[in-house]
Every structure is written in C-alpha cells, then in structure tokens.
Structure prediction request, 294 residues.
Amino acid sequence: MPHTSHTSRRKRPTQKRTEVTDDDGWTHVASGGNVRRVMRTRPRATTAIKESESGISSNLSEEPTLTPAEAPGRLTLSDLQTQFQTHRERWEASESWTKLTGILEEQLKRAQEQASSSSDAGGPTPSPPSPHPVDAIVCIGLGSPSGFLRDGWVDRRSVSLYQLAALASIKDQVACTTSSNLKVYAQDPVFNTLDESLLAALNIIVIKHPEAFSHITANTMLFCPGAERKHLELLLPSKPWLLFGGPLEHADSGGVLQGYVDGAGSYCLPVFEALEHAFWNMRLYWVEEVVGIE
Prediction:
C-alpha cells in the first residue's frame, strides 16, 4: 500500500558549471548565480617575449599570476599614511636602524672617496672602476602594505609597512650623499591602488614585471627582503653594489648567490624587537672588489 502521507520531493535541477579563463589567468567557475575564482598557472606569451628579448629566463613566464591584495573596504589613503608613519617612527627608533644607518654611511663615504681618487688619478693607464654613489634603488617583493594576500588568509601588512619604512629611511639617507637624481623603483604584482598611492607620496615609482630587471646595474642598491631565489639568480649577475635582504649565505654552494656573497662584505642586522620576522637574519651587502681593466 503506498504511503500517501509523504509528499514527494521535487528534484533540484542540475546546474551546469562553466569555467572561463580571463586575461589575468583566473579561471572563473560559474554555477548558477555563484561565481568563484581559482588561480591557474598559464604561460604569458607577451611577457615571455619581452623577457626573452631582455635576456631574462623564460621560466618566469610560467609563474602563477598574482593579483592585487585586497585592502579593507573602509581603509583610506590618509589612514594608511598614518599607519606607515607609526611604523616608520618605531623603525627609526630601533637599534636595527641605528646600526644599519651607521654601516650604510661608512660604505657610502668609502664609495665617494674611491670615486674621487679614481677621477683624480692621471696617466695613460685607465684606473680600475670603483663603486660610485648609488644612482637608483630597486625594491623587489615588498608585498602589500594595505591588503590581505591569498584571498584574505594571509595578513602580512605590518611586515610590509616596516620594510617600506626601512626603504624610505635608506632612500633619504642615500639621497643626502649622492649628487645624482636618485630614482627609487618598486615592483610587486600584489600592489593595489592604495599601495601605489602611498608609494607615489614617498616618491617611489611603481613599475610592472619584469621592468625592474632592466634597472639593475653596478651602481644600484637592490632592496629585496621578500625576493625569491629564482629572481635573485637573475638579478645578482649584474653585481648591484649594495643589497639589502637575504640571508644569501649557503643558499647555493658554487651558484650565483654564493658567487655574489664571496665578493661582498656584509653586516647582519640586530634583532628588530618590534616584529622580529620583518627583518629576520637580514643583511646589508656591499661589493668589496671590482675587477679592473687589464
């Protein structure tokens, strides 16, 4: 005998799921009215061509596409600037900055003296090249000072703000000791609109990948506290005179990183007590010897 007291349940219609990959490498998975995004790794043909022409490994064209970090909805540029100023005051009051600025001053002074002695030397035999005052600072991998990463799961804002404070402090010190028009560049795909506005207010020029690679020369300071090893392997053959980041020691015995370390002096920062992992084991490196012209 059939059970007539139970009403039959209507089957929900099966919703067709559609995947659409946009120009940024995101695959949008649509199911009815809901849409979610999944990051996919795919070649970037245009970037690969540019990198190939500039001598940069095409392996970078296979990297996952990163998108700008998501800032809190109510955060304004004024709020972000206030946060940055607070972080900068803590940084500049720390032993880490006190020690770093002293070492940096010594190296900048040494460079100026060597450049002056080279220009004063006469005779038909050319003098070996020597370090010159920094004419550009290139920042790689700073992260977002305002936004969350990885769909909101990672909050690295304080680390980025402290590292940006260090960059700004170094920029001001270097600018006081060089007669050239110091340019400061920053490259990171996670920068959002607020980040770019904050950097612009600090006279830091935001550039897109892989433009930073073309700005690295022997007279560059490379500021790379968050750079990946594969990027450093492409940057360090240019022998930037100063580098802040690392540690590079024992990273690849006999490789590019170790080769740079072998020809450089370095100073390890004291522990930054306000946020230890913001500068954990980081160093200031400077190229000690430059090969002369035979």
Observations:
- The chain has seven helices and ten strands.
